[in-house]
């Protein structure tokens, strides 16, 4: 598969939020405000790309040669947790404003399924290094775009007249349904 | 008893708290997959709650979260190995959602809220209640989606659970003249089912509140 088609698969046709349901907690939780979801998405891109590089290297050069692939779940979650911590410390040192924006979301990313999910998909599909990089970037970019769009719609919905029993989560899920139908059409 | 009942109904993790949604929406395309996933989560929750509750006094505050994640991850790996050996087809179908139990907010939430504060007995009861509540929610979602999307209910399919029980059981063509709505087993159907179920729960709650007020 060429790199472009991997990018399109990761970004659109197999969008991580709308077809794989990953990162839904943050999708519904933080997507109230446009600004929040934008920074959250950026933090996710950052962590996903770096952690899939590390996971790729550790999986293929340590776990596979020693026949310990059953340890992958533990290994990946450890990599992600460590990376999130390192990234947090690094950003704090480098830029105060970036830390102020990204900082509060970073601890949440450890338990964001979008990150671990992307890493697992990459390993399952046996991508090579470059493909891993492209897919990780594409799928986390897909995450950013979808939660940004959804939060924009939800901001508008706050001012509109929604039936009482649909207020809050149900209407957000209905919006997600419509978006999922649209994304489903790409296939 | 009350705690278990509460965790299943009033504090149901999926329908009320909206936690652990990834597996709840992703695997509920058939009834069988739904309850198997629910039971896997129940097992992991039970194991991790017991261990975390036992070691809660010796874990320093600073490394609490990494330690908990590792304990949960260990149990997920155990469940993965068991399922891979016993039911390889089902393991293949559940795919990445099995390892993803590690980052399921329900298990993590229970570990922080209950297991790291209460004794072992309470933690076990809480794990059973929450796990059953989750399984129950998944079963409702799976039931609705498979019925509408495929006009069938798979209780024990021949390549899944039937390998353990010996007999397969699946209802097909339940309503003879009903044309299945294909969308329901697609991702969009998952969002729609959950949205409508939540709206229904809200509707009942609002009505009951009005009833009390009058």
Write the layout of secondary structure elements.
The complex is a heterodimer of chains A (187) and B (214).
Chain A: H1 3-13, H2 24-29, H3 34-63, H4 72-94, H5 96-102, H6 106-109, H7 113-124, H8 129-157, H9 169-184
Helix pairs in contact in A: 1-8, 3-4, 3-7, 3-8, 4-5, 4-7, 7-8
Chain B: H1 2-8, H2 21-26, H3 31-55, H4 64-86, H5 88-94, H6 105-115, H7 120-150, E1 152-156, H8 162-165, E2 169-172, H9 187-213
Antiparallel strand pairs in B: 1-2
Overview of this structure, please?
The complex is a heterodimer of chains A (about 190) and B (about 210). Chain A has about 190 residues and is mainly alpha-helical. Chain A has one domain (about 5-185). Chain A is built from nine helices and no strands. Chain A has helices at about 5-15, 25-30, 35-65, 70-95, 95-100, 105-110, 115-125, 130-155, 170-185. Chain A is globular and about 60 Å long. Chain A starts with a helix and ends with a helix. The mean pLDDT of chain A is about 85. The model of chain B has no long low-confidence stretch (mean pLDDT about 85). A two-stranded antiparallel sheet of chain B has the order 1-2. In chain B, helix 3 (about 30-55) crosses helix 4, helix 4 (about 65-85) crosses helix 5 and helix 4 (about 65-85) crosses helix 6 (about 105-115). Chain B has about 210 residues and is mostly helical. Chain B is globular. Chain B is about 65% helix and about 5% strand. Chain B has one domain (about 1-205). The interface of A and B includes residues 19, 20, 163 and 170 of A.
């Amino acid at each position: 598969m060429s790199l472009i088609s991997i990018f399109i698969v990761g970004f659109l046709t197999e969008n991580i939020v709308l077809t794989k349901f990953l990162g839904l907690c943050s999708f519904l939780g933080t997507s109230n405000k446009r600004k929040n979801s934008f920074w959250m998405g950026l933090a996710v891109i950052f962590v996903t790309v770096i952690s899939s590089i590390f996971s790729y290297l550790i999986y293929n050069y340590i776990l596979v040669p020693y026949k310990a692939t059953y340890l992958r779940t533990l290994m990946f979650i450890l990599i992600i947790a460590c990376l999130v911590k390192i990234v947090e410390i690094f950003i704090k040192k480098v830029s105060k404003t970036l830390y102020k924006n990204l900082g509060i979301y970073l601890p949440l990313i450890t338990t964001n399924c979008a990150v671990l999910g992307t890493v697992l998909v990459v390993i399952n599909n046996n991508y090579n290094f470059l493909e891993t990089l492209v897919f990780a970037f594409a799928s986390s970019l897909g995450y950013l775009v979808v939660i940004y769009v959804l939060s924009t719609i939800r901001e508008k919905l706050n001012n509109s007249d929604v039936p009482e029993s649909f207020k809050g989560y149900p209407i957000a899920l209905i919006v997600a349904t419509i978006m999922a139908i649209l994304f489903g059409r790409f296939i | 008893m009350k705690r278990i009942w509460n965790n299943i109904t009033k504090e149901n993790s999926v329908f009320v708290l909206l936690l652990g949604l990834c597996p709840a929406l992703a695997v509920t395309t058939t009834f069988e997959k739904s309850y198997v996933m629910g039971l896997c989560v129940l097992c992991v929750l039970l194991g991790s709650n017991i261990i975390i509750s036992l070691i809660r006094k010796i874990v320093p505050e600073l490394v609490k979260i990494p330690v908990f994640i590792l304990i949960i991850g260990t149990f997920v790996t155990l469940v993965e190995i068991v399922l891979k050996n016993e039911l390889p087809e089902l393991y293949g179908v559940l795919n990445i959602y099995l390892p993803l139990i590690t980052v399921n907010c329900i298990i993590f939430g229970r570990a922080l809220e209950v297991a790291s504060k209460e004794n072992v007995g309470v933690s076990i009861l809480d794990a059973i209640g929450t796990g059953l509540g989750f399984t129950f929610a998944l079963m409702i979602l799976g039931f609705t989606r498979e019925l509408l999307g495929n006009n069938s209910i798979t209780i024990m399919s021949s390549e899944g659970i039937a390998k353990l029980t010996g007999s397969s059981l699946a209802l097909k063509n339940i309503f003879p003249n009903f044309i299945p709505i294909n969308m329901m087993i697609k991702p969009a159907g998952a969002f729609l089912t959950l949205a409508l179920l939540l709206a229904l729960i809200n509707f009942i709650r609002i009505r009951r509140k009005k009833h009390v007020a009058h």
